[in-house]
User: Fold these one by one.
Assistant:
Number 1:
Amino acid sequence: MARVIKQRPMNWIERLYIFECLRGLFTTLKHAARGLFRYETLPTISYPEGQPEIRHTYRAKHRLMLRPDGTPRCVACGMCAAACPAHCIFIEATQSDDPRIEKRVMRFDIDHLTCVFCGLCAEACPVDALRMDTKKIVFEHRTREEFVAHMSDLMDWDPKDYPEDAQSQMAPGGTKNKQALETWGMEVK
Amino acid sequence: MSNFYNMPKLPTENSPKVEIFVDDKAVMVPGDTNLLEALKAVGIETPHVCYHPYLPVSGNCRQCLVEQEGPRGRMLVIACYTPVTPGMKIFTPASSARVKNARKATQEFMLVNHPLDCPICDKAGECTLQENYMEAGQNESRMRPEYGKNYHGNPDHQFIDAKGQVRGGKHVDLGPRVLLDEERCVQCDRCVRFMRSIAKSEQLQLAGRADHTYITTFPGEKLDHEYDLCVTDVCPVGAMTAKYFRFQKRVWLLSHTPTISMDDSLGANIWLDHADGRIYRVMPRCNPEVNRSWLSNTSRLAFQGFNKNRLPAMGFNVIKSAMGEGKVAVVMGGACTIEDMAAARMLKDSMGDKVELFGGSLLKVSEPDGIAKSGDPCANRAGLKLMGFADVSELLKRAGEFKVLLTVNADLFGEDAAAAKALEAIPSRIAFSAFNDETAKKATLAFGIKHWSEVQGTMVNNLNILQKLNACPVCPDAELRPAYDVISELAGKKFESASAAFKKAGEYASVLAGLSYDTIKSTGKLLEGGEA
Amino acid sequence: MDIIESKTWIEWVITIAKFAFCFVPVLYILLLIPMERRGAGFMQDRQGPNRSYIKIPYFGKIRLFGYIQNMCDGTKLFFKEMFAPAGVNKVLYYVAPAIPFAIVFLSPCVIPWFGPMVFDWGDKAVRIPGSIIDSDVGVLLLMGFSSLSAFGAILAGWASKSKYTFLGALRTSSMTISYEVCLGLSLMGILLLAGSFNLTDIVSWQENHVWGIVAQPVAFFCFLIASIAETGRAPFDVAEGEPELVAGYHTEYGAMQFGLFYMGEYSHICINSFLIATLFLGGYAVPFVTTETMQAHMGGSLAILCGILAFLALAFLHMLHRYSKKLAATQQTHRFEVLQEYKLYKICGWAAVVVFVVLGACAWFLFNPANMAINGFAIGSFATALGTALIHLLVLVVKSVCFCWVWIWVRWTLPRFRYDHVMHLGWKIILNIALINLVVTAVIAKLVGGN
């Protein structure tokens, strides 16, 4: 329910306007002086040269998490595509070669031109296969087709960039990969 | 498992009404059926897994529990196997916490070792277990994570997964068309009952006892029945999956078009499940009078050829001029709708005695199999008769009289090349066909039309039931038109729509007069006075 | 000939040279536009335009703190195609933008840029007024000129044949009329005190008594508000209110035609700030120091001036140094480029410091009017007068720049008034305050027994 906020009625000094004007002028003067004398403390950044600091919770470009053997964790359930409000995820599934795994993703495309970066896909993923923590926020390509990230593109990430994430370290090249492979490679009866 | 199977009695329009008390309220329900169907008739859905209206009642899932007031107090009974008796007192979860808890507990037991495969399961979205869970379950998981899910079924199929859990039987190859996932199976034995009672070929069996029960075939045998894909329909969970549809599409992304399978004169009612402009699967549409819930593999898998080998629609003016060369024989195939026939009758009206109408197929008529096939491959034979078309065999005898042969969806050369050889005497052979089939190849002029899955229309099946076809938006070529549209243009008076063509058909066949698409129910309309 | 011979050649030279002041408002545009854009940026916690650059050898990309951007914009406007929409009154359409811009060259004529230069030239005592035209009705002339610029807007609005421009023109005209009244009335108080319409007299009254802002604080506020309104800038820019009228009277203008309006507006600000500085801030008068004291210690005064300038250069260098240090510590990919660019500024800054220090030292030690002569012709008093004029001019410029800043500051702070509020403010509040102020001033002046 909408909350009704009662505004305090203005007193006569405020209604005179001139003093409020002066207060406003003082505020802007402070900011202007900050820009002039403390230029480096401006909250804006010189964008292409200076990159913003992005936290890992920021919803940036997607990546597909990998199993210890390097295959995507994705089971092609289509939950991300179902959750996607922009309908920018295209998935095709096929039979997996691994007998322990039933379904495997054959095509996983994300159209980043259509994507609204809401993060619902990553939320919806039941197997933690899709994440948006790459911190890549710049998408620059020549053609529209290149904005569609294919599976190979989404799987192309380095575990070294995610040193604190145990799941990422289990991927090939990660510190926990060997250990994870041992568990993963359990004997199939 | 009980050895005593009996088919459930389903309520009909003529069922006697009796009064029973549901949650202390008096309601009138059909009196000659079981409690589950009776409650459904008054709008109370009872969750069930093993019960299927067209399969013998087995009563093993215990999901449909209700409370009944009896001589020894209120007892939990299964609704699917309890006949309705006048004055019985029934309590549903709406009033009884005991029923609610019992169903919840049953649900929880069923899910104990049911794998969390929903994301990758092809049944997800139309799974009975999911529906029941949303309705009766919804309990917090009491699974101890260190124990996890375990598979106790066929020891040959067990393996230990990356989390150290006992899994197994993930894709057991039952036969050429069906895969079994033993882990997902809830042992409702619907598939076993289907093969035993409906298919009359006991190819599936339950093996093992209790928690170790699993579905299997006899050693060395395969599941390869004409109706074996029906087990994937009856399976309430994703245990039985059809290979052709495996991982093709999540079911909630499919749109459904109700129509009629036009490859058999029974006219099995089907759903065409389509998405992205193509048909992904064909599912039987329940029609108690016609095919119940069954569909043959032939009808079901026919869709795979619907968009292949299609004929383009080109050169209509040449055909128009070719029609004037002499006496015309129009042959309508079994896949033609009543609307197409009305257009052909109009063509005869406009050209007079120059045109003679024939219909039918050269294929052999076989015996009905009693499930969902009449054995007559000419689907609309009753319709042809109704609209006054002579049989095609007569044409074969009088082939010499004609100068022009116009075949509409009638692949005479492909059906019986030897018999159709007589037709080669006709100099100008025009083929209206969806496919580039033998007749189209032999024809002097071939023109592509829409396939029956893409048109709206009606057909009369061998039980004399008028059934509706609906257009599924999967036509591969925007240029293609329905046959009635093309033929009526030949006749010089183009139909505006299928319903206009159907109205015109009423002029030629009095039984159809006064009917419209709106008055034909989805299960069809039994025509009176006509002959099957 | 008589007229020519009535004055010495140096008088003629200076009189003619004074016409150069006509270009001051145009030069101010070069100052005001970057001030406006970057000032607005700073007030909104952003950087403002700072990307355009000129590439020079060694130092690389020279951005001049975003100053190059204005050159680029000017070049763009200049080379864009001039066009007229179909159906406009071609003559008026093309003439209109020139009007406000032409006024700009007239208005500076009456502003006293420095105190009257009085010096001995040979055996003649020469007196040269500080304004180009030392008119006794200087204030009236100035007011007349500045209200003329409204004609540009009105004609443009009418000639453009568009609803938006027409509405904009209507608003401009009505607002100009309303605020001219307030402007004139709030001015009357100070005129009453000074007892003259001559701007030089007003300034010298302030020099002798007290600044106008102290004598007439209420009039100062009224005048400030009214002149902001008269320039048609926020918060009074209803004439070109974007949400309502697209761009007001200059909607249909592009290229340099629009550029003329744009420059006219900034020049108008410049002139108005000169006017305020002259009327209320003592004009060219140096605060706390009389002209006589200054002239008596001209060498010291010039040295102090040089010292101030050197200090400013040092402050600039300090800011550069501090910012380069911070920049070098960041990860910005262009930091070395920028540091290289700053090298140039540092060199310039240090050069300025050295030059000012040397000049100051020279002035301190070497400036002695009594000994100054060229080929035996004593120019000591002329040099003193020239130095005074220089200091006066700089003081006036500083004061006016401060007021220019007020224009920009107010624009980026206060939200736009609604049109009826503007009229309400003009006619019902400021006019009344100005009237009361006038009456009170008159009464007090009479009681105190001024002129």
Number 2:
Amino acid sequence: MATRATVHAHAAPQGFIRKYIFSLDHKVIGIQYIFLALTAVWVGMFLSLLMRIHLYWPNAVLPLIGEIKPETYTALLTMHGTIMVFFVLTTAPQGGFGNYFLPIQIGAPDMAFPVLNMLSFWTTFVAFVVMIAAFFVQGGAPLHGWTGYPPLSAVQSAGPGEGLGADLWITSIAIFCIASLMGALNFLTTTLDMRAKGMTMMRMPLTVWSWFITAMLGLLAFGVLLSAGILLLLDRNLGTSFYVPLVVVNGVQMGHKGGSPLLWQHLFWFFGHPEVYIAILPGMGVTSQILSTFSRKPIFGYRAMVYAMLTIGFFGFMVWGHHMFMSGMSPYSAFAFSILTMCIGVPSAIKTFNWLGTMMKGRIRFTTPMLYAIGFVSLFVSGGLSGPFLAQPVLDIQLHDTYFVVGHFHLIMGVAAIFGMFAATYYWVPKMFGRMMNEFWGRVHFFITLIGTYAIFMPMHYLGMAGGTRRYSSYLEVGYLTKLMPLHEFMTYAAIITIAAQFIFVINLFSSIFKGPKASDNPWEATTLEWTTATPPPHDNFNGMTPVVHNGPYEYGVPGAPKDYVMQTDTPVTVAGAH
Amino acid sequence: MGLALLVVIWLITFISTYFFAAKTWWLPHGASTAARFIDGQFTLTFVLMGIVFVAAQVALGYFAWKYRDRPSAPPVAYSHGNVKLEIVWTALTTILFIGLNLMGYPVWAANRWEPARPGAMQVEVTGMQFAWYFRYPGPDGRYGRTSPKLMDPSAGGEAAVGLDTSDPAAKDDVVTGSLYLPVNREVDLTLRSVDVIHSFFVPSLRFKQDAVPGLMIHMHFTPTEVGDYEIACAELCGLGHYKMHGMVHVLSQEDYEKWMAAREAEKQ
């Protein structure tokens, strides 16, 4: 390993541009990804704020933005979904924290391919710029939703925003796919090839496992979306008919013939479902890491956790049809897709049990990262348990494309994943920037965000059960929907408060980075390799040394050990009766 | 801090569960044969998942408080887990989830695997930005020809669906903007769309099906109560998605026949 590591080593760069902009250092690239995602999440959150305001005050004229028209609303929801899924949920947990900590946690000096790493970040950046550009072109951003179902997304005259805006949207996604493929390749190679001596696969922290499995999913899923996106571009601009049959839009017959709108849905969801796990798996990894650290106990069922993540990843590729029960797809295949979907519930339940088992009989330290990890478990349970409703085709007759779905996926792949990122931020900022974050404001931020999240997304389930359709710019046109407005009112107020509370986080983050109390090398008394090195870590992570690993990742409370934790690099302590 | 967490998590759990259990907002009153079964399966799923939800959240809050670090706390139990326990809960969740899923299948099969019975009433549903049109084949029982070239959405009615009036079978076709059905008679809908994907959703009838351009999708149901039920489009179809609504009027057999006779008379 040592020789291989030297091959990839590169000297510490001099000069601002090589050091902070076009850096090859995985740590700098990780921080770049995190700041990109932080920018994107504010954009995405702002769009959702506009949507919530419009739903409750449909006639409001906002300063600078003006009146929100129906097509503005559909453009907002499209861009909110796309930006959040790609540039936040995919970018920060994997590209950000994964990039920064995967090499350190396996004892490597850098990623396997530093240039590819830099390239994948800057490609992601270009994708983001192209996406944002869609707002500013003639016709504005597309209105076809983040799922972009053709023919709506394929026919330029199907609505405002379906012109250049839609081209930019799909081009951006295609560029993003390329970036993600490069990133995935790098993560896989690094994990397989660059581990320090003694870092066997079964000694890897669960965070590393989660990034590794996420990279596998990314490698298999983004290629499919890339091809699907190129076909969509061809349909839009070159008159091909992959997705579009003969259609008459606004009384005008289009030139397409014989395409299948369902083909796009199959390809999109073949990517789209694994994407859910791409967003949430790193959150699961970091939650496991943090629960173990602050319960001062080994993770409950390490192997079961690894197998559960692998199983989730494996089944994740066989369930895409559960998004299509009402689409006109064969009702027989619905049977297979729904059984397989239920199968995913099993490893998910195992993970929940094991998290609870980790906390049980521990000595829990309530740091802010721990609060967020506990919040993650709570949200994972709440968001997860609406899954078995939606996995049943017969219940989808009522629930599909209602707010019940919106509540479900926001709790689990949206906010649970975000809680994973918050936990990771509060946990790792001391290592990344050498300063502790403010605990008091961390707690305030946590409680407002947890309660606010439930206040926004729990009512969506009630709304959906009552038949509340999603993607409606107004609930005032349909009689029974108008009666549900009080729920929208409540959610809008909850959203305003919760969004406002996020300023606490940003202010805490930046003031801590610059002015927080200095962090020691191992402030949390944790065991994994990032806590063995200096804070912040030097350019090659371990100051020219290569760590040698002797222990599993979560050796807390080991009887007979001098401290209540045994680092991965410590000489092993023999434990009587341990298994 | 442990206590604060316990209180917050428990409160969230109980308040959330209350609004479900009190049925403050619930499925709308069901008025089709499928409704009773769908609602039963929904309630069963709700009860089972509700129990797991409350149990898991209560345990989470309780553990946070009970195992908080304090000077008097006992040393942690050094354990890497318990294989037997893992096997037990894996088996239990598998049985719960798969079993629950299988129980819903008779309804799904009756709705989607079996075709409508012979003699079911025929209605064609056409979705377009942003309206629904319904076509009845008339006394001859045959739909007349339609042509994309003849479609004129701005004209509405027959012209919107592109009915070719030169076809003899089209002479008695009735095209309406609302769906009128006799009560307790099975209806076999043929769903189609001329432009983008729409979804025909009637919450009170427990009916939803996408209308997809290029496909003719047959779907059947039986309304069981006289009344007016709202249709909402459930697939994003453009800027007017939110106002693509319509009505289903379920009438007594007698009233329905009167209504239909009046429509046919208009055609003459």
Number 3:
Amino acid sequence: MTAPPAIRVQGLEKSYKTLNVLRGVDFDVARGSIFALLGSNGAGKTTVVKILSTLLKADAGTADVNGFDVTGQAANVRESISLTGQFAAVDDILSGRENLVLVARLRHLQGPGEIADELLARFSLTDAAARRVSTYSGGMRRRLDIAMSLVGNPPVIFLDEPTTGLDPEGRLEVWQAVRELAGQGTTVLLTTQHLDEAEQLADRIAILHEGRIIVNGTLAELKQLLPPAELEYVEKQPTLEEVFLALVGARKDTTPREAR
Amino acid sequence: MTTKHFFVDTTVLLGRSLRHITRSLDTILTTVITPIAMMLMFVYVFGGAIQTGSDSYVNYLLPGILLITVASGIAYTAFRLFMDMQSGIFERFQSMPIARSSVLWAHVLTSLVANLLSLVVVVLVALLMGFRSGAGPLAWLAVAGILVLFTLALTWLAVIPGLTAKSVDGASAFSYPLIFLPFLSSAFVPTDTMPGPVRAFAENQPVTSIVNALRALYTEQPVGTGIWIALAWCAGILVVGYVLATITYRRKIS
């Protein structure tokens, strides 16, 4: 990997009052790859995403996105990114098309109408374009949400738990959209607590646990972390879920609380 | 970088929230129902028993009703801001390359437009109920100016609960005391009928001076120094509200 990474995070720390959410997080995300940040509820995934998207300031450490520092060059970072948060950030009262036009205008792009129509077609929303978003299904809202993130083709996209609350069909639609994104060279940072989602989509997977990245590698590398001897009762390969739970469990045994 | 886009971004976002108003006109109706109901009650029920020294009670009452209209209208300003905060669209805007303050300004200007619409509706109802004025365009311009200033002042106050509230009810509850403040003023009855301490409060709170100034303007009476006290109250609330709202906003987005 010789090209500079699209995202570089070093020694990131963040506390809310007495709660240490991040205790020194480090990771790189290569350009054009899908990187999954995996963790339980409250592990700090959203905090990482908020810091990277300039919504929150870190207490310590540095973070670069597309070569720009998130605190010193926040405006450049915002030009380079797009955020799809945990809850579909769409305007219910506007129509799907109006939502896309709104984002295109705010990104100061030429021809917002054409941009909107193109994205509506790409996400199979053309028929629903003129309807108010409040009439959309969960999957349609998410698709629109992601389409809004693609306006202006930002090189880096953050997807914070993009399939939360979706039915299986909606999930598959979102997965397809994410794969297409990466196919075009967009860097995607994805957070999820659905292990199969990371398994399906990600080039690299990092597990965030108790404020630190405890493992970071490809799916194959992660699977190798469990010795085959652990598998004597199981005939198939370990699933990522087993890897995750084993790692999270092991960590608790080896680093007792008084280490802090 | 950020100032370059300020006007464009504010215009785009203003267009968005104005659509919220035009597509849910019921918010304008709910805003005007309380003040109109009060106006009906006071003119047709209590009004006959109130000695105001004015020949028409609706003429006496209107300025207080207009202030109540604004006070109930800004509850929706806080509500709209709160809904944006909740839905995640606020974070989407903040993570985009826009002038960040334009998000707030769009809400403030929308509040101004929505409240002016409500005020027009209330004045039309008052006309139906017999409100008449011989005041010239300049006096009406002054009335409009004071109402705009008053709306802006209360709007910036409304921004604070809009940004910080934990629930929908919390976002709009702050407006209740503002709606009742006119009762302790010269809006419904002349203050000289009130007992000492109540009268002292009524005569020295902002609503009385603003109501008196508005009344003097459209009844073609000399406004005297009272109008400056009214303007000073509006400007003072506006500055305090703006500064506190801006501080709250900065805390919220960084």
